[in-house]
Amino acid sequence: MTANPTVEPIPHPATAEAGPERGPRRRATPLTLRSVAYSVLLTGLCLLILVPFVWMISSSLKHDNQVFTVPTQWIPREFVWSNYADIWTQIPMLAYLHNSAFLAVVISFLQVITGSFAAYGFAKLRFPGRDWLFLAYLATIAVPWQAYMIPQYLIMEQLGLVDTHLSIILLQAFGAFGVFLMRQYYQSIPDELIEAARIDGLSEYRIWWRIMLPLSRPAIASLGLLTFVSTWNDYMGPFIYFTSNELWTVQLGLRSFVGQYDAAYAMIMTGSVISVLPVVLVFLLGQRQFIQGIATSGLKG
Amino acid sequence: MTVSTAPALRKRRPPEPAAPTRRRSLRPTLVGWSFILPNFLGFALLTLVPMVFGLALSFMDWSPWGDPEWVGFENFERMIRNSTFWIALWNTTYYAAGHIPLTMAISLGLALLLNRTLAGLGFFRTAFFLPYVTSLVAVAVVWNMLFNPTSGPVNQFLQLLGVSDPPGWTSSTAWAMPAVIVASVWRDMGYYMVLFLAGLQTIPNELYEAARVDGANAWQRFWNITLPGLRPTTFFVLVMCTVASFKVFDLIVVMTDGGPGRATKVLSQMIYEEGIREGRFGLASAISLVLFVLVAGFTVIQFLIQRRREA
């Protein structure tokens, strides 16, 4: 980061509201004091926000009757690791995980592919009807799913797709939000680049494949990640469409577990931890690209 | 559109030379549509068609057992006479009125806190975002346990602070909704924080520099630079947050299942119960229409306010 230091005679660079420049001359003492206080504040907030996770993990390592004690034992007296071994036989956790992963991967893949493909059309090609069509996409983002889930269900029923994985895949793979997000990103890619490629004789399809896709990696990561997370965590869709147990996702499995074994607190928390782990892993792997992708797609209406 | 009638005859250049050889052929249209089509097919069949179909459905009597029949406003009359509808409408509004401002304020606050250079910044951002990626059922179950009236940590903490009779949270009709709101704000704030962070990064730093030269204090800078600069982001976040609030379902179903009594029953849940569980497709679609009008109304109002501010 090369700052432009010549034109700023301000003595306190680090108090800047949005100062990304790493202060080359931090000298004043109140300043460091400030940043210490600041870090303390953030750490405090962070701990507060993480309390539910701590509770989840700590309870998952207890016996059922130790979960609710007054005062709360944040660190279990005895670590019951066997919960993590037992849960696989208590409920078909592995099958649930498998279903969730399958749906999340397939849907994210389709979202990214069809979304970015359509976004290229909307962002870089001119043809009659384009803007109206995009407006239709945009408008539906603001329509809550619940407002059309009944007719959607009836259509799915007519197609004979209720109680199949395909129903949820079709329902979630063609989101308007994905097209919107990718288009926002594509608009930040200069048109000159595409013009140059056209002059070089590349077809539009190859431009998309060879230039746009590689350039939009952060946007792909954001969209893929958001889709993965929301599919993995979706409760209502699978809840409505999947009646057979063997189709169930982790969310449904966990929920039914809660209903069946009301007092198996520790095991329920074990299941919760397991349900959270994969998606946290995926998030941690993709988060750098993700934050960048959201930031650069601008989200300016 | 107006001048492009004469093809290659005139030598005068068109105002916008998009491509060197832009003949008036079908080709660009076909290519354009070919890009959109794979997504559009799914989108049209499973989003656009159901939306229109749903509108028609709300004026029909249709159940899994009988033939559909056009009944005019009968579904709406039945809806108005249904006391659960009014309770659900109130609860949905209550939830939105709590969830939207709290989420917006907290996520903006977090974004402002994190929008500077600091050691461990990435860690903090990740930590604040973590609740959003947490699976919903886990969130609901954990918060239910934290809110346990007798031995949950929340009430233990309140007692420590000297509250002798802490609320029963999800077991009390008065406190169930606030409990749900707390859990939902906790879950959502990280997502909107990222959006606000992105918005903050678009505000040019020079503005702050100049303001500081002019002697503006932190509050003045926030009020006169940050807030106006964030306006497009705020608008987007507000719309997304409004839509999300009015359609709340999952968290409520898992945390309270609409209870105790009907204390946390919301419109989405009623749509599910009437439509998919009871098979009253027409009535459920009528309620859906109310939900849609509510969200659309709020969105349009926000849009108009935003437009006026911009002008």
Automatic annotation (TrEMBL), chain A:
The keyword Transport belongs to this UniProt entry's keyword annotation: yes
Region (Disordered): 1-26
PROSITE patterns: ABC_TM1
Subcellular location: Cell membrane
Signal peptide interval: none
Pfam families attached to this UniProt entry: BPD_transp_1 (PF00528)
Location (main, coarse): membrane
Alphabetical list of InterPro entries matching this protein: MetI-like, MetI-like_sf
Residues spanning the membrane: 35-57, 101-122, 134-154, 166-186, 207-229, 263-285
BP GO terms, sorted: transmembrane transport
Topological relation to the membrane, as annotated: Multi-pass membrane protein
GO CC terms of this entry: plasma membrane
SUPFAM superfamilies from the UniProt entry: MetI-like
Swiss-Prot/TrEMBL keywords: Cell membrane, Membrane, Transmembrane, Transmembrane helix, Transport
PANTHER family: ABC TRANSPORTER PERMEASE PROTEIN MG189-RELATED, ABC TRANSPORTER PERMEASE PROTEIN MG189-RELATED-RELATED
The family this protein is said to belong to: Belongs to the binding-protein-dependent transport system permease family.
Protein name: Carbohydrate ABC transporter membrane protein 2 (CUT1 family)
TrEMBL record, chain B:
CDD domains in UniProt: TM_PBP2
Membrane topology term: Multi-pass membrane protein
SUPFAM superfamilies given in the database record: MetI-like
Transmembrane segment boundaries: 30-60, 94-114, 126-147, 167-186, 235-255, 281-305
Keywords on record: Cell membrane, Membrane, Transmembrane, Transmembrane helix, Transport
GO CC, one annotated term: plasma membrane
Record domain ABC transmembrane type-1: where: 89-302
Record localization: Cell membrane
GO biological process: transmembrane transport
Location of region: Disordered: 1-23
UniProt similarity note: Belongs to the binding-protein-dependent transport system permease family.
Protein name: Carbohydrate ABC transporter membrane protein 1 (CUT1 family)
Species this protein is from: Pseudonocardia hierapolitana
